[in-house]
């Protein structure tokens, strides 16, 4: 879970802890969002705008509108999937370390949670072990005995947060073919990775779906918009657990405007990738005290060999440099995660990290 608000820390000078965009959406786009929202009736639940957004999202994902569910952030989608596909007799399986919401969602649906451990120092994505755990259903489970129970749901984060690596498309295909469990591929960062498994989501293959978000490449974290791409039958199943009118008119307006600007989005992604290269090189220049892992996305996991990562994190925090640590995750002892920020933020972070390591 993200660090709770703590008044002992100064406000961030560089906020690099949540993989958000460092940039606000441009003023002309923001104006268009307000303009569009002005035309909506705030007094009505009104779903016509939402239908329009469903079509625009379907167009962006290159699927038909009956394969889309819109969510209040992709977090909501991940929770809906757990309600639809897991439960006390249907365990959830995921890698560890991976995105924490998977465990929280499993808990809410009272499902045993089976985690397949990735191995430091590089955390390669062991798809064979994942496949085995899914079919066997008896790997070590937290919060209940998964023993012998067939998995109901697999969360596969692609690229994986926080390790920033990516499994192969063919590996996903084999996983889906080898199980009856719903395989939910979390593509929150796919725009940065330039790779997707959406073309594998087949109207006739009932057990693959993909969740995505507007919070990262589209810069809309504060407005909460995510979506699911799934076969129509799964769409119905997931929708059955959704609150009616889960999106507000402002969010829908913002989604519509952003999807008219996909050309600009490509430029933003290219800028982030360029800046990631610079950040990676900056971290690598601090070797052997720092070892960045290769990244396919807008954040970098790095190791601090032989250092107390909590101490480094704490000192940076006291200097207004916010990055991510994983309290209680023993596999990530000695590791921290930094988001790609603006050039100024990245330079500030590198400068402060260098100073902390030399102290
Ligand atoms: C892998 C992954 N999935 C999903 C999300 C949730 O995104 P949101 O709820 O903002 O759409 C995040 C956010 O950091 C994430 O890292």
Give me the CATH fold name of the largest domain.
Aspartate Aminotransferase, domain 2
**Overall tally of domains:** 2
Strand portion: 5-15%
What separation lies between the terminal Cα atoms?
A: 29 Å
Could you give the order of strands across the largest sheet?
2-9-8-7-6-3-4-5
Helix content: 25-40%
Q: What is the global morphology?
A: globular
Class per helix and strand makeup = alpha/beta
Radius of gyration over all CA atoms, rounded:
20 Å
Largest sheet: 8 strands, mixed
Q: Which architecture of the largest domain does the CATH hierarchy give at level 2?
A: 3-Layer(aba) Sandwich
Q: How many helices in DSSP terms?
A: 12
What CATH first level of the largest domain would be assigned?
A: Alpha Beta
Order of helices and strands: EHHEHEHEHEEHEHEEHHHEEHEEH
The H-level CATH homologous superfamily of the largest domain, spelled out, is Type I PLP-dependent aspartate aminotransferase-like (Major domain)
Q: What value does the average pLDDT take?
A: 94
Number of strands: 13
Low-confidence stretches: 138-145
Any ligands, ions or cofactors bound here, and which?
pyridoxal-5'-phosphate
Could you characterize what this model shows?
The strands form 3 sheets. An 8-stranded mixed beta sheet has the order 2-9-8-7-6-3-4-5, with helices on both faces. The protein has a 3-stranded antiparallel beta sheet with strand order 10-11-13. Helix 6 links the parallel strand 6 and strand 7. The protein is α/β, with parallel strands linked by helices. It has helices at about 25-40, 50-60, 75-85, 100-110, 125-135, 170-175, 190-195, 230-240, 250-260, 260-285, 310-320, 345-359; strands at about 15, 70, 90-95, 115, 140, 155, 180-185, 210-215, 225-230, 290, 300-305, 320, 335-340. It is built from 12 helices and 13 strands. Helix content is about 40%, strand content about 15%. Residues about 140-145 have low confidence and may be disordered. The longest helix has 23 residues, at about 260-285. Helix 3 (about 75-85) crosses helix 4 (about 100-110). The two termini are about 30 Å apart. It folds into 2 domains: about 15-20 and about 265-359, Aspartate Aminotransferase, domain 1 (Alpha-Beta Complex), CATH 3.90.1150; about 25-260, Aspartate Aminotransferase, domain 2 (3-Layer(aba) Sandwich). Bound molecules: pyridoxal-5'-phosphate.
């Amino acid at each position: 879970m993200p660090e709770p608000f703590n008044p002992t820390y100064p406000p961030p000078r560089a906020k690099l802890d949540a993989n958000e965009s460092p940039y606000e959406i441009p003023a002309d786009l923001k104006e268009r969002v307000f303009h569009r929202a002005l035309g909506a009736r705030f007094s009505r639940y009104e779903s016509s705008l939402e239908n329009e957004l469903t079509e625009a999202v379907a167009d962006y994902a290159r699927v038909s509108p009956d394969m889309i569910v819109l969510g209040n952030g992709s977090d909501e989608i991940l929770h809906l999937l757990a309600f639809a596909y897991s439960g006390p007799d249907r365990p959830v399986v995921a890698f560890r370390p991976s995105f924490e919401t998977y465990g929280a969602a499993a808990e809410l649906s009272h499902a045993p949670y089976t985690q397949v451990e990735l191995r430091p120092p590089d955390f390669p994505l062991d798809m064979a072990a994942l496949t085995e755990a899914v079919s066997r259903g008896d790997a070590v489970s937290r919060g209940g005995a998964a023993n012998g129970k067939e998995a109901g749901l697999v969360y596969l984060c692609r690229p994986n947060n926080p390790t920033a690596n990516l499994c192969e498309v063919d590996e996903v295909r084999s996983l889906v073919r080898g199980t009856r469990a719903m395989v939910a591929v979390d593509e929150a960062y796919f725009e940065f990775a330039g790779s997707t498994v959406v073309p594998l989501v087949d109207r006739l293959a009932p057990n693959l779906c993909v969740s995505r978000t507007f919070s990262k490449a589209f810069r809309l974290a504060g407005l909460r918009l995510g979506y699911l791409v799934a076969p129509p039958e799964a769409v119905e199943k997931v929708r059955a657990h959704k609150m009616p009118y889960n999106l507000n008119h402002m969010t829908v307006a913002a989604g519509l405007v952003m999807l008219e600007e996909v050309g600009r989005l490509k430029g933003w992604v290219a800028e982030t990738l360029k800046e990631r290269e610079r950040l990676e090189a900056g971290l690598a220049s601090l070797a052997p005290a720092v070892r960045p892992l290769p990244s396919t996305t807008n954040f970098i996991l790095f190791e601090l060999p032989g250092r107390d990562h909590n101490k480094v994190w704490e000192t940076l925090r006291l200097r207004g440099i916010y990055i991510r640590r994983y309290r209680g995750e023993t596999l990530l002892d000695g590791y921290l995660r930094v988001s790609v920020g603006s050039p100024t933020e990245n330079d500030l972070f590198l400068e402060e990290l260098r100073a902390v390591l030399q102290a």
